Amino acid sequence: MGDFWVFGYGSLIWRPGFAHVETRRARLHGYRRSLCVYSFVHRGTRERPGLVLGLDRGGSCIGLAFRVPGDLRNEVITYLRERELVTNVYLERMLSIRLDNDATNGERVLAVAYVVDRAHEQYAGALDAADAASVVRGAVGQSGKNEDYVLSTLEHLEALGIRDHWLEEVAKRI
Q1: CATH class name, domain 4-173
Q2: Of 12, 11, 20, whose CA–CA distance to 72 is shortest?
Q3: What's the Cα-to-Cα distance from 65 to each of 28, 59, 136, 173, rounded to whole Å?
Q4: Which of 52, 114, 122, 156 gives a 20 to 30 Å CA spacing to 88?
Q5: Coiled-coil segments, which residues (predicted)?
């Protein structure tokens, strides 16, 4: 099989953790970046959950697409599944994304992406910025403070020139 793409919208942007040969800005239509997943492990606990990002239905999301050599397919997919499917709150999908590059006029490719499972117990739903900030504030898990996760994600998005007004509002409130 040939090369394939992986779509990153949150921590994969700033910490992909897998080998890739190209990185491109990309847009996924039909899903939006949202703090819609309760974190019981990495950024919170079952007693005091935090929130992490998920791709939820509606809108669109600008992120990064990583092109992975085909000979690394099994290794990278195994890594992504171990990372993203720990509690099965995400569903692995092949989704059409539009690569952002003037030379290709927005070439469409299929990419591996992880979308939230709305039927999962960790699905937090569509929270407003104040409610999301309230959950994030003070939550801590194995990977550290929930606030650090949100602020780091926003920092990396801003460095790439990607605006996420809702996430910016959450950050102001924490």
Answers
A1: alpha beta
A2: 20
A3: 10, 18, 27, 30
A4: 156
A5: none
